Structure formats: structure tokens, C-alpha cells
Amino acid sequence: MIQDRSDLNQGELNMLIKRLYSVSAVKPTYRDKGSLSIKVFLCSLVVVGLLQTFPMAYAGQAETAQDLTTLLRSARAVTVNKKTIGDPTLINVKKFIKKTKKNYLRSSGKKLDKSNVMLGQLLEAIKQVVTEAQSGKYADKWTKGDYANKFLPARFARQTGLAFEKITDGKGIIKLTTSDDLLVNLANKADEWENKVIETMFLKPNWERNKVFSEKTSTGYRLILPEYYKSGCMACHGGDQGKKIHSKPISGNIGDFGGAISVILK
Ligand code: HEC
Fold first, then answer.
1. Domain limits at 37?
2. In total, how many domains does the chain have?
3. How far apart, in Å, are the Cα atoms of 73 and each of 53, 66, 99, 117, 244?
4. What pLDDT, on a 0 to 100 scale, did the predictor assign at position 3?
5. Which residue has a Cα nearest atom 11 of ligand 1?
6. pTM of the model as a whole
7. First to last CA, the chain
8. Nearest residue to 52 via CA among 87, 93, 9
9. 13: CA distance to ligand 1 center in Å?
């Protein structure tokens, strides 16, 4: 499901390692054992070189980035609650985190890996934002428009992303974004890379649903996950309301591309 160039490299790497082993498994039938060990030696050099070009940490980044999107979604799902959207001071932080972890376990099939620093930092950012929301810190933050003073899932996601970037000292970025046409909050505007993936892949009818795209870029390891409108999104993103809040007068339909979660790991 993941289109990931690191996987390819990993595959190539595995092939090479396999080849190396098959070389060493060859019985030294030659008289000249020296040449065989030279071959093994040269092969090891190639493998060591490859390991340096594609360090193992790189393969780990793909998993970390994916887990970060799962964790953000797990927490965002808890914010989908009429009462706390209207009045976030009603949030019970402890229960919120408990539900987040439960959602994470359900969707990823594994417990939250506490030894993963970045995951821990995102959890910390989530805790920070819900604690602030609960204590009324956002009371004057969203005072205009149809959704004034509402602690919306997308607002929770945005605040959490900002907190995460601070906590990680800029080494980790996670944000909710969408196409320029569907954009509601300009601050969530897609950057060049995100926009290209959204326009040339996610919005194309032949793009496999839910398939992420990832790539090693000069900014860092990047991963972006598409999301689709569900019935619960329609009251705001569908019909006339959608035309009203989106930057272009377009109403969303159930199943349409609605946005994406974008991760950068530096
Ligand atoms: C109660 C109305 C409401 C509902 C329900 C809702 N949204 Fe939104 N959505 C908004 C508003 C308003 C914003 C802008 C938030 C802000 O101020 O940052 C937004 C922002 C977003 C963004 C961030 C990009 C942007 O345009 O700023 C995405 C992506 C998004 N919504 C997708 C969805 C999806 C998918 C669903 C359903 C699972 C959904 N929304 C449900 C009102 C809603």
C-alpha cells in the first residue's frame, strides 16, 4: 500500500545481501581461495557503501512517519464530539489520551511504541493541546466566522502540529492540508511538494484509495496520506456550506478527496 522509494532501496539492499551470502555459501572449489575472499571482501565493501547511502534509520523513518499519521488521526477522532467541539473545557484529558491510545491500537494493530522518540513527542503535543483547550486557553482564538469558538478536529490537528514542531525543535512536522480549491484556513495551504502530490496523484481518479506517497527530499523524508469526505464532514464541507467555506465554490461529496496529512522528518 505504501509507495515508498525507501522500500525499493531496501529491496535492492536485501538482494545484495542475499547475493553476498550466496557468494560466501559457495564451496571454495577453486584452488585459489584468495580470489574468493577478495570477492567476498569487495562485495562487503559494496554492502557497507550501500548501508551508508541508505542507512537503516531511513527504513525506520517510513514507519515512524506512518505511525505519526495514525496517532494524529487517533487523537483527532476523539475530538469528533459535539459537546467538546462546542465547549472544550468539558474535555477530560486523561480519558482523551486513553481513548487516543485505544484508537491507535485498533487502527495500527500495535501498542504505541514508547521507545520511539517522535511518537512520544507527538503524544506530548496532543496532551499539551487538549490540556490547553480544557483550561480555556483557546477561548479567544477562533472568534470569527460560522465556526467561531468551536474546537474543530482540524483546529486540534493544526495546534497539535505546531506544538509537535516546537517540541521536536523543527525535526518533525505534521500538518493537515488540502488542495488549494478546498482550502478553508489559508494557514493550512499546501506547500509546493504537497500541492504537486495532491494535484497529480491524489486527485487523479486512478490513484489507489488511501495509498500514501513518500519520498526522500532535500527538506527531509516526506510522507503524505490522502483522506476522503465521509457523511460526518458534509454539514460543513458539502452542499452550499462547502461552497461557502472552501476557497473555490466547490461542495465536497462523500468519498471525494478531502485533505491530507503531511509529515516531514528531518
Ligand atoms: C463543523 C464543521 C466541519 C466539519 C464537520 C468538518 N470540517 Fe473540515 N474544516 C472545517 C473548518 C471551519 C476548517 C478550517 C479550520 C480552521 O479554522 O483552521 C476545516 C479544515 C479542514 C481541513 C484542513 C485544511 C483547510 O482547509 O484548512 C481538512 C483537510 C478538513 N477540514 C477535512 C475535513 C474532513 C475530511 C471532515 C470529515 C471527516 C471534516 N473536515 C469535517 C469545518 C468542518
1. 2-265
2. 1
3. 32, 11, 12, 18, 26
4. 47
5. 184
6. 0.81
7. 23
8. 9
9. 42
The single-letter code of the amino acid at 39 is K
Half-sphere exposure (Cβ direction) of 197: Cα atoms closer than 13 Å: 22
Q: What is the pLDDT of residue 43?
A: 53
CB 173 within 8 A of CB 165: yes
What span, in angstroms and rounded, lies between the C-alpha atoms of 255 and 236? 15
CB 159 within 8 A of CB 206: no
- Decide: 111 and 105 in contact? Cβ < 8 Å: yes
Lining residues, ligand 1, CB within 6 Å: 142, 147, 152, 154-155, 158, 176-178, 182-185, 188, 227, 229-230, 232-233, 235-237, 245, 258-259
Residue type, 86: G
**DSSP state letters, 23-58:** HHHS---SS-HHHHHHHHHHHHHHHHHHHHHS-HHH
Beta carbons of 219 and 193 less than 8 angstroms apart? yes
CB-CB contact of 162 with 129 (8 Å): no
At residue 6, the pLDDT reads 42
**Nearest-angstrom CA–CA distance, 132 and 138:** 7
Residue that is written with C-alpha cell 505504501 in the block = 2
What are the pLDDT digits (tens) for 131-140?
999 999 999 9
Would you place residue 1 in the very low, low, confident or very high pLDDT band (cuts 50, 70, 90)?
Answer: very low
Q: Cα–Cα distance between 95 and 35 in angstroms, integer?
A: 66
